[in-house]
Amino acid sequence: MTSAVITWLRFLLVLVLAGAFLGQLLVPVVAREQGEIFPEVEHLVVPYSIAGIGAIACVQAGIVCVWVLLSLIADRRIFTPGALRWVDAMARCGGAAAAICALTAGHLVMVEGLGGPGIVLAGFAALVIGGTFVLLTVAMRGLLAAAVADRAELAEVI
Questions:
Q1: What are 49-71's pLDDT values in tens digits?
Q2: 3-state secondary structure 55-118
Q3: Is the pTM here over 0.85, yes or no?
């Protein structure tokens, strides 16, 4: 990967992090407005705001993992066991964000008896998209682990 690609990726990651931070600031504002418009969900404003901020924080942590992996690529140290830990952390972040979204949607529909088909679909979408991300990350981790093992074996031969 060229240094120009890494630089552009880092620039875009900074933009995504800035957008996520803005999203974290807006979550309580939007939740409070929804609580005022729909009094039946006013008691959910604080816990759902915390869930929203937490899900976004998981995404931000995943972006930090990608940043570290880009640094490892730039330093030509990506094929080391340490890189596997960052990939694991990225998969956990994606799984946690998906779980928060799906559990929040499930709580709204099953416990509170509110929402509708859109909320159910959003919960399933969170599970499918999050699950796909986690499984793809685990598959890529397997490829990286094989490359790390091959590189170690090749180093022994040389």
A1: 999 999 999 999 999 999 999 99
A2: HHHHHHHHHHHHHHHHHHHHCCCCCCHHHHHHHHHHHHHHHHHHHHHHHHHHHHHHHCCCCCHH
A3: yes
